[in-house]
Design goal:
Length: 545
């Protein structure tokens, strides 16, 4: 046996490290109360311990779930560390979900405590009668901002709870396989499902995500996660920022272009992360006001496919490197990222660009494969596409509360997680998502990638947003319908847009029709809601049908 110290990989060790080695480094938060709050990693660690103490005083016991309905802010960060660090389970809930879904999730997780941002009080008041397991409601604010009146029974004040504690608390040591947090998938089909992360899986994900060929984060960065802390733990950034000890900027609930731009500039943000839709808003704002970024250098974009046109604009017009990444709740979430090797950097620019547009290579710790419907492995030739399977140290092996295993076999070997995505993998290991399996358009036995068609449409200068869905067709089963929001003040026509596809994709894949709309529905995590769109256009008659 090896003779090394068996120090468990615990989340508390991250914030202890940050407090000791980056104790004076700032955490800046835009508060829901309206102002900007500044403090340091040392203060965050102290307050996290005060919170751990306060939660214990409220009767929390190891394994109890502490839920949050909150935006990106320092109190939310303290709940991440104060709950997980004291052997409780942090359960972030997306406030943009339907109230019935929130109640369902909170009851499924049997949340004992619910902490919420002040502007979500009306939502929590509405939900409270449905939340059978919640024993304490905590408003994440100070005494001065506490609501004068509320229907919530015994509402507690977050800052007051912390101020009553002396911070003599010492982080406990326990098994690294203990649960630290739970996140629910958005449940586009059926009920949401819980992924329960462990301290060990989270720490390994944290190490891997900070590497140069992953997010490439360092103590020299100023990191602003636009991705919400309720969307798969802000892709792990609250942990990786502690590991590297960098300045962290938390934007609160205002994610519009103006608010973000001003914060990027005033706090000298160098690195960010978010889904494509948030960059649409930010880019529109900087373009309309002829602005430039002075410190913003890199961003990771994932959650849904980053349109190549957006990547090009960020890179060419604003000097912002885009790291295209793929992941999912069940993977904590990082799976792959598109970063080039020395050899690939010698390729012609257009070839490099095409690689960067893919979802990329796995980080060490994740293993992937593509398989046909019978579970047979498909070649990595960049052409064959199939069901994307993964396994690894931060991939779930079970959903919370379920007894049947979600895992499948690959060439007879058990233990692979089916992602529900369809992908190709090229000989260099660059994976490209063709579609979610339920979004792919099945036309006369051939598959058409809705993402590829959307990427073409998004490259048209007059298109603000595009979504492609399958429409029923008597001859071909399904044909693509393009749903588009025009940019304001443009005169785009159906014919003009369809002509734009000529030569860019095979003729038989060109959408059968275009519908111009004012709005495209998005999920609670900012992705295009294909299910709702298909519903909206279920009786749509394509031309010639
Ligand atoms: P949900 O959106 O259902 O809450 P996730 O955030 O876990 O859940 O979404 C994971 C899914 O998002 C993936 O399975 C994939 O379909 C999609 N996705 C994530 N990143 C990308 C990407 N870069 N390109 C295309 N699809 C992506």
């Amino acid at each position: 046996m090896g003779q090394m110290m068996a120090m468990p990989l615990l989340i508390s060790s991250l914030i202890k490290h940050a407090a000791r080695h980056a104790g004076e480094t700032e955490i800046v938060s835009k508060r829901v109360e309206g102002d900007i709050h500044r403090y340091t990693w040392a203060s965050a660690e102290r307050r996290s311990r005060q919170l751990a103490q306060a939660l214990a005083r409220l009767g929390c016991e190891p394994g109890d779930r502490v839920a949050t309905l909150a935006w990106n802010g320092y109190r939310h960060l303290e709940i991440y560390y104060g709950s997980s660090g004291s052997q409780l389970v942090c359960h972030t809930i997306n406030p943009r979900l339907f109230p019935e879904q929130i109640a369902w999730i909170a009851n499924d997780a049997q949340d004992r405590i619910l902490c919420f941002d002040l502007n979500l009080l009306p939502l929590v008041e509405k939900l409270a009668p449905e939340l059978s397991s919640v024993q304490h409601f905590i408003a994440m604010t100070d005494r001065a901002h506490m609501p004068a009146q509320t229907s919530l029974p015994g509402l507690l004040c977050y800052d007051e709870l912390l101020d009553a504690e002396d911070a003599a608390y010492v982080w406990p040591e326990f098994d690294e396989n203990t649960a630290c947090s739970i996140c629910y998938t958005s449940g586009t089909t059926g009920h949401p499902k819980g992924a329960v992360y462990s301290h060990r899986s989270t720490l390994l994900h944290t190490y891997a995500s900070a590497l140069p060929d992953a997010l490439d984060c360092s103590a020299r960065d100023v990191i602003l996660p636009v991705v919400p802390m309720f969307h798969v733990n802000a892709w792990g950034l609250p942990y990786s920022c502690a590991l590297i000890g960098c300045k962290l900027v938390l934007p609160g609930p205002h994610l519009d272009g103006k608010s973000l731009y001003e914060l990027f500039e005033s706090e000298k943000v160098s690195f960010s992360a978010g889904v494509p839709t948030v960059w649409l808003g930010l880019l529109n704002y900087v373009k309309a006001n002829a602005l430039k970024f002075s410190t913003f250098k890199r961003t990771v974009i994932g959650g849904s496919a980053c349109p190549p046109a957006m990547m090009k604009t960020l890179q060419d017009d604003y000097g912002v490197e885009v790291i295209h990444a793929w992941g999912m709740t069940e993977l904590s979430p990082i799976g792959t990222l598109a970063k080039l090797t020395t050899r690939q950097l010698e390729l012609p620019k257009d070839k490099q660009q095409r690689l960067l547009e893919k979802q990329g290579k796995v980080v060490y710790g994740i293993d992937m494969a593509i398989a046909d419907d019978q579970g047979r492995a498909l070649p990595w030739d960049g052409v064959a596409f199939g069901n994307l399977l993964v396994r690894g140290q931060w991939v779930i092996n079970q959903y919370y509360g379920q007894t049947t295993s979600p895992l499948v076999t690959l060439d007879g070997e058990p233990g692979w997680f089916p992602t529900g995505d369809v992908a190709t993998i090229d000989p260099d290991g660059f994976m490209q998502i063709t579609d979610r399996s339920k979004d792919v358009i099945k036309s006369g036995g051939e598959w058409i990638s809705s993402i590829e068609l959307e990427n073409v449409a998004m490259a048209h200068p007059d298109v603000a947003e595009a979504a492609v869905i399958a429409c029923v067709h008597p001859k071909w089963d399904e044909r693509p319908l393009l749903v588009v929001i025009k940019k304001a003040g443009t005169e785009l026509t159906r014919e003009g847009l369809l002509a734009f596809f000529d030569g860019r994709i095979p003729k038989w894949q060109v959408p059968d029709d275009v519908v111009f709309v004012n709005e495209i529905p998005h999920t609670a995590t900012g992705k295009i809601q294909k299910l709702a769109l298909r519903q909206q256009f279920k009786d749509y008659r394509l031309p010639g049908v």
